[in-house]
Design a protein that fits this description.
The protein is mostly helical. It has helices at residues 2-10, 13-29, 34-38, 42-47, 56-70, 80-94, 128-133, 137-152, 155-174, 179-191, 199-215, 221-236, 242-247, 252-263, 276-284; strands spanning 105-109, 116-119, 123-127.
């Protein structure tokens, strides 16, 4: 259950000093002024958007608790052949990613709509409809690589720090009831707050994803092509991409950035764009 894990986060005495140190450094550096804090804390939010106060162990613990709740509310696709393929492809990318200190798990969701998302602790979910939409293995790998990029960048945990950390500061200033912390995190989970990434988060995940699939021997052009497919599909069938757009805003700039990154990669022979295994899975679903 999520509740015991969340309640354990209420006991944050050992975190407060670290958090206050971060805030102090922001004041000293001139990034945050007292007036900006008093006027609502927006400058604080922006300045600490790249701070993560949680350890890897706490992230893993939080992820397990989240997944326990999440998997009871969605239909996990149980076809072992499809799941084995997705796990095999996913772990072929993990071997080349920038964060290998956690265990990654890949799951297929049988739910209408094109979507994919990463849960803290190394859990990657991908909808059947997204697999159906991908035209080549490189396009599918690009999506998995992007989601792995969110784990590498610890974007959800930084979002949690950004909100939860500022609430700690507010509690210290106005002496709010600490029991509110549990409610705050529960509300964040219910609202999907962890997946409302910033543009910088998306850019970083794109960068990690392109580099990841390239190093894994997969043609990174699949990333640019899949972004273009989504961009075109958004104008034709916006409701189909509703879930993906809400967590991963589509910007033409991202396509340009990815293409520029690909141009800067050194030539590499043998990059694959497709496979017989991918085509077999496509026929199966």
């Amino acid at each position: 259950m999520v509740t015991p894990i969340i309640q354990s986060y209420v006991h944050i005495t050992n975190r407060v000093s670290n958090w206050l140190f971060c805030i102090l450094m922001l004041f000293v550096s001139g990034c945050v002024s007292l007036s900006s804090l008093e006027s609502g804390g927006n400058a604080v939010l922006e300045a600490v958007s790249d701070v993560n106060i949680f350890t890897d162990e706490e992230e893993i613990q939080f992820g397990k608790a989240y997944v326990a709740e999440h998997d009871r509310k969605v239909s996990i696709y149980r076809d072992p052949i499809v799941n084995n393929y997705i796990n095999s492809l996913g772990h072929s990318l993990v071997r080349h990613c920038k964060r290998k200190d956690i265990q990654y798990t890949f799951k297929v969701v049988n739910k209408k709509g094109v979507n994919a998302y990463a849960v803290p602790g190394g859990y990657i979910y991908i909808h059947l409809d997204l697999i159906r939409l991908a035209r080549t293995e490189s396009e599918l790998a690009a999506v998995l690589g992007h989601e792995i990029g969110h784990i590498v960048g610890q974007h959800s945990m930084k979002r949690l720090t950004q909100f939860y950390g500022v609430e700690i500061l507010k509690q210290l200033i106005v002496d709010e009831d600490s029991s509110e912390l549990t409610k705050i995190i529960t509300d964040i989970i219910a609202a999907g707050y962890l997946f409302k990434y910033s543009r910088d988060n998306e850019r970083e995940a794109d960068m990690y994803g392109v580099q990841n699939i390239y190093e894994a021997g997969i043609n990174p052009e699949g990333a640019a092509k899949f972004f273009e497919v989504m961009r075109d599909m958004q104008s034709r069938e916006p409701t189909t991409l509703e879930g993906l757009i809400s967590s991963h805003p589509l910007h033409s700039e991202r396509v340009v950035n990815v293409r520029n990154q690909i141009k800067g990669l050194p030539p590499k022979s043998g990059l694959r764009s497709d496979s017989a295994s991918f085509r077999r899975i496509k026929r199966r679903i």
